[in-house]
Amino acid sequence: MSILTTAPAPRIAVLALQGGVAEHVAMLESLGAEALVVRSPRSLAAAAADGLVLPGGESSTVDRLLRRFGMREPLIELLDGGLPVLGTCAGLITLAEVIRDPAPGQQSLGLIPMTVRRNAFGRQVDSATETLDSALGPVKAAFIRAPEVVSVRAGVEILARRGTGVDGDGPIVAVGTGQAIALSFHPELTGDTTFHGEFLRRVRAAKLDGVQGR
Amino acid sequence: MALMTQTALDSTPATGSPLLKRGLAEMLKGGVIMDVVTAEQARIAEDAGAVAVMALERVPADIRAQGGVARMSDPDLIDQIVESVSIPVMAKARIGHFVEAQVLQELGVDYIDESEVLSPADYVNHIDKHSFTVPFVCGATNLGEALRRLAEGAAMIRSKGEAGTGDVSEATKHIRTIRKQIADLQATFRANPDELFVAAKELQAPYDIVREVAETGKLPVVLFTAGGVATPADAAMMMQLGADGVFVGSGIFKSGDPARRAEAIVAATAQYDDPAAIAQASRGLGEAMVGINVGDLPAPHRLAERGW
């Protein structure tokens, strides 16, 4: 947040309806971004954000609140306009085109052409920390009742798998498109800034190109 | 007592660390955890947007009304509830009853509540929660009690309130007490850090944890509020007083229209700082649970006084 830097800090909206919001805010600020918590259509609009973070939490709860508070449509509109986005855990589920095992009536925003499965690695006693051999190098990951990406379609790059490198056959746990990064796990809990750093690099690049939507 | 030691991270998956135990609670923040006694109620809670359910045989209001010894629920009931929803399932063990806790871990519940709502099994010791893979939430009426539970390995704290009453006044007292004691500790740390040794003695809690709280000005785990929350405004007040989320026990399924009330409490908890949103959530909910004023409860029936 140095005032000596020439470019203004990127403004990142963090969806704060429910879940692990503070950890993302702290990590984004440590990387020089301005984090703005949003929990209503009004605060989302006022943020005039350069990027969006969808944190972990309960994806069924977040979906319900997005619809109840009228935030689903404005979010889809921003994403359709190209707004860069980072989703972790529940955020990954929210970004998926298809949820294989949704809670009754659960919807997603459908941005990333992939199919996901919730609680894919078991219950809380199976939650685990692990170092991943990701496309961006080693990443310390915390999987907490985590989802997996069952399949991806055209335009989606696999960024990490569990237990193998990205070219292996382990379950897919990180993906990217030009616009989005989605992770099954919580780097914001382990303090690993690899993916947040990459996300902010993309946000800054999009801002320079002036291609991000408003 | 290395509470917040980062677990060694390597390519072999590691389970049961404080980071993972506390991490699940972090993901529940801003949410409502609802007591349910049947699979049907669990589905209503999930549909309403609960972040987790607490599987029980009787809600606290019924435990209070029916009396007798209250114990861990039948594993069949817990299994049915685990099967019926995709959100995390919590279940209660009696204070000090480490075998009930072993059973609950075996059943695959996601969190164990070592709870004063059930009859205590040990009037001296709480469960050694470090020895479990599954995380624990424990009740506290004040900071010292909360820190003793953390020393024993709790990964989440809930202020106790007075369960099964529908009277929120004890919940208010406990969250205010904990927050004030944290603020006092932080002030002591800034002005006279050498007084923290005596503060630890007075709080009857280990010095290292007392110092951590004094330095950071907050608990190292998530703090929810419980006990007597019955309306959207009750839930929002707990959030404005600094809770990270709320447990609602009897308040939902002892009310006139549980599905609607559950959804309203979820909405008010999420937008707790927006009076217009809380007003909207409070409309047309039907009858709230009748409740009991805590002042009318004779001392032996006050659950919050269980635990030490």
UniProtKB/TrEMBL annotation, chain A:
Its EC number is 4.3.3.6, 3.5.1.2. Coiled coil: none annotated. The keyword Lyase applies. It comes from the Bacteria. Gene3D superfamilies: 3.40.50.880. Keywords: Glutamine amidotransferase, Hydrolase, Lyase, Pyridoxal phosphate. It catalyses: aldehydo-D-ribose 5-phosphate + D-glyceraldehyde 3-phosphate + L-glutamine = pyridoxal 5'-phosphate + L-glutamate + phosphate + 3 H2O + H(+); L-glutamine + H2O = L-glutamate + NH4(+). Pathway: Cofactor biosynthesis; pyridoxal 5'-phosphate biosynthesis. HAMAP family: PdxT. Catalyzes the hydrolysis of glutamine to glutamate and ammonia as part of the biosynthesis of pyridoxal 5'-phosphate. The resulting ammonia molecule is channeled to the active site of PdxS. Belongs to the glutaminase PdxT/SNO family. PANTHER family: PYRIDOXAL 5'-PHOSPHATE SYNTHASE SUBUNIT SNO (PTHR31559), PYRIDOXAL 5'-PHOSPHATE SYNTHASE SUBUNIT SNO1-RELATED (PTHR31559:SF0). In the presence of PdxS, forms a dodecamer of heterodimers. Only shows activity in the heterodimer. This is Pyridoxal 5'-phosphate synthase subunit PdxT. It comes from Kocuria coralli.
